[in-house]
Design goal:
The protein has 13 helices and 9 strands. It is α/β, with parallel strands linked by helices. It folds into 2 domains: 159 residues, Rossmann fold (3-Layer(aba) Sandwich), CATH 3.40.50; 124 residues, N-(1-d-carboxylethyl)-l-norvaline Dehydrogenase, domain 2, CATH 1.10.1040.10. The strands form 2 sheets. It has a 6-stranded parallel β-sheet with strand order 3-2-1-4-5-6, sandwiched between helices. A 3-stranded mixed β-sheet has the order 7-8-9. The termini are far apart. Bound molecules: nicotinamide-adenine-dinucleotide.
């Protein structure tokens, strides 16, 4: 028998995630501020609520998928939702937000005896639609055990990173490294091309040498080297520059919070911000290659 699930935030990610829960046979009720998302949800069999406060009562599991820290804090704490949730309800926040915000909200949940997990995702809209997301989870292992069957209906890989907030930290660390790898790869490729090398030949050499990395393996940023990647499609689709900048901002906040030194992440963030200023915010993040292009090309 399916679980009773409440879902708040039915946008680009939350919409298809909720649809996969409905497909798996759960009873899902949901709410979003944007009416269009509610009609799509209803057309897949979801029960639309008039307000967030109606979603959070009488459910086994409550899931939120909101844009940023301020939305999560204002929903759970500002709108007073936390005080309406039953202690038996498992709360899973899948939004990518600051670890510090996650800790504040989790503490408020704990104070009411509610189990809460942070479970930010990797895999993008494609992964949300196909139900192949990776969940990077922070919180108690017992809560994760209870959440697993539900998470498996929306994703493929589930990692436990540690206590509350650890899921956010791991997600931020991964995306900061990804931005550094992608910009470094783009820089090396352009250096080779400027010195007369074929980018495909250079890519293959570096892929099999000590510079080998994920971008060279499956997401080459240089146009024409690899098929089926955004570089071959004018950098349309994929993971937006805007979202990478958001995640790098969270990495900088987390670094500041704990006095960590992140010069490479800071440099990558500045590269991406300047890239966005040239009107590239809605392009895939591998478009950072354009920053290195020669004027005469
Ligand atoms: P989105 O803007 O498409 O969806 C968020 C939804 O939350 C919106 O529809 C908005 O109306 C709703 N919302 C905001 N405040 C609300 C409130 N108080 N009550 C009810 N609804 C509310 O964003 P998205 O692309 O779905 O991303 C959601 C989260 O997932 C973000 O934290 C993002 O960083 C993360 N993420 C996104 C991707 C991606 O590729 N889009 C990939 C991985 C992680």
């Amino acid at each position: 028998m399916g679980a009773k699930i409440g879902f708040i935030g039915l946008g680009n990610m939350g919409g298809p995630m909720a649809q996969n829960l409905l497909k798996a046979g759960h009873d899902v009720k949901g709410y979003d501020l944007v009416p269009e998302t509610l009609s799509v949800f209803a057309s897949h069999g979801g029960v639309v609520c008039a307000a967030a406060k109606d979603v959070v009562v009488d459910v086994d599991v409550l899931i939120s998928m909101l844009p940023a820290s301020s939305h999560v804090e204002s929903l759970y704490l500002g709108e007073g939702i936390m005080s309406l949730i039953d202690a038996s309800t498992l709360v899973i926040d899948c939004s990518t937000i600051a670890p510090a915000s996650t800790r504040v909200v989790s503490e408020a949940a704990k104070a009411r005896g509610i189990q809460m997990l942070d479970a930010p995702v990797s895999g993008g809209v494609g992964g949300a639609v196909s139900g192949t997301l990776t969940f990077i989870v922070g919180g108690e292992l017992t809560a994760l055990g209870a959440a697993k069957p539900i998470l498996q209906d929306m994703g493929k890989n589930i990692f436990h990173a540690g206590e509350a907030g650890a899921g956010q930290v791991a997600k931020i660390c991964n995306n900061m490294l990804l931005s550094v790898l992608m910009s470094g790869t783009a820089e090396a490729l352009q250096l080779g091309v400027d010195n007369g090398l074929d980018p495909a030949v250079l890519s293959e050499i570096m892929r099999k040498s000590s510079g080998g990395n994920w971008a060279l393996e499956v997401y080459n940023p240089y146009p024409g080297v690899m098929e089926g990647v955004p570089a071959g499609n004018n950098y349309e689709g994929g993971f937006l520059v805007d979202l990478m900048i958001k995640d790098l901002g969270l990495a900088m906040e987390a670094a500041q919070d704990k006095g960590a030194s992140t010069p490479m992440g800071s440099l990558a963030r500045n590269l991406y911000i300047n890239h966005r200023k040239q009107g590239n915010g809605r392009l895939d993040f591998s478009s950072i290659q354009k920053v290195y292009n020669r004027e005469d090309e």
